[in-house]
Amino acid sequence: MLSLVSQRIIKKEEYMEINNLKNLAISDTGFIFDPFAGKTFTVNEVGMKIIQSLKSGEDIVEITKQIYQEYDIPLEQLERDMSDFLIQLKEQGLIQ
């Protein structure tokens, strides 16, 4: 079932480009600075893990599997949360 959830997420973000993520400065506390846009963000532990994983080149399916295995999150909630977070990153210009 996890692969179906991940496939639905990846289809929504099929053409995701992460070039802007590579420039982010990320603190251990979840404070994020985008030096090109001059924007700052704060994310929780899971958000930080997603950004760091995307930044290092992992695909969204693998990231979703890792989060599912590491945290006690129902699949339906994970799917919604991942989709919402990716939309937020897109709205901030961090992914395309």
Strand and helix layout:
Elements: H1 2-12, E1 25-26, E2 31-34, E3 39-42, H2 45-55, H3 60-70, H4 75-91
Antiparallel strand pairs: 1-2, 2-3
Helix pairs in contact: 1-3, 1-4
Describe this structure in words.
There is one protein chain. By secondary structure, this protein is mostly helical. It has one domain. The protein is built from four helices and three strands. Helix 1 (2-12) crosses helix 3. The longest helix has 17 residues, at 75-91. The chain is globular and about 35 Å long.
List the main descriptive attributes of the protein structure presented here.
mainly alpha; 3-stranded antiparallel beta sheet; 96 residues
Instruction: Describe the main β-sheet briefly.
Output: 3 strands, antiparallel
Weakly predicted, low-confidence segments? 10-15
User: Helical element count?
Assistant: 4
How many discrete domains?
1
Mean pLDDT: 82
Overall structural class, as computed from helix and strand content, comes to mainly alpha
Number of strands: 3
Order of helices and strands: HEEEHHH
> How much strand content do the residues show?
5-15%
Helix content: 40-55%
Round the Cα radius of gyration to an integer and report it: 13 Å
Give, in spatial order, the strands making up the sheet with the most strands.
1-2-3
A few lines on this structure:
The chain is 52% helix and 10% strand. It is mainly α and 96 residues long. A 3-stranded antiparallel sheet has the order 1-2-3, with no helix packed on it.
